[in-house]
Amino acid sequence: MKILIINGPNLNLLGLREPEIYGKQNYSALCALIKQTCESLGIDYEIYQSNHEGAIVDKIQDAYSVFDGIVINPAAYTHTSVAILDALKAVAIPTVEVHISDINSRDEFRKHSYISLAAIKTFMGMGFDGYRAAIEYLVGELA
Ligand code: DQA
Residue 14, class by beta-carbon neighbours within 10 Å (0-12 exposed, 13-18 middle, 19+ buried)? Predict the structure, then answer.
């Protein structure tokens, strides 16, 4: 089993970026948690981060017939990107959405997620642990 973990814009700035919302741990720490989670489950994985919508669309298209599942934190594109939604629907790879913060208890514009329309489940408001929950859930669904 091979899963793709996609992180959208500004998540490379974790630690620096609004630590009162996203925590003090940096992006390397998040990647280490993902690595440890996937290794403990015995699955192959790739982590991808981009600040560019089209690059994320390309990565999702390239995942077709390569990856069995996707975990995605589309970051700000969550609330704007029909293109990422359409790419996920096109490849039809089981996808779990994750957000570090609780997007339902923040700004009004964060309450809507285009990506939820293609995701089998969404985890939010759990900090970095949401990634562990998302990966475990996805692997459970794919098993
Ligand atoms: C986020 C929430 C989004 O609203 C925001 O634009 C992000 C991160 C989260 O992980 O909580 O960049 O996806």
Answer: buried
Helix (H) or strand (E) holding 90: helix 82-91
Atom of ligand 1 nearest to the CA of 110: 4
Q: Look up residue 23 and give its amino acid.
A: G
* pLDDT on residue 86: 99
Q: Does the global pTM surpass 0.85?
A: yes
Please provide the DSSP assignment of 23-50 as one string. -S--HHHHHHHHHHHHHHHT-EEEEEE-
Where does ligand 1 bind, in terms of residues with CB under 6 Å? 10, 73, 75-76, 78, 99-101, 103, 110
- Structural contact between residues 123 and 134, judged by C-beta atoms closer than 8 angstroms: yes
Answer yes or no: are the C-beta atoms of 3 and 9 closer than 8 Å: no
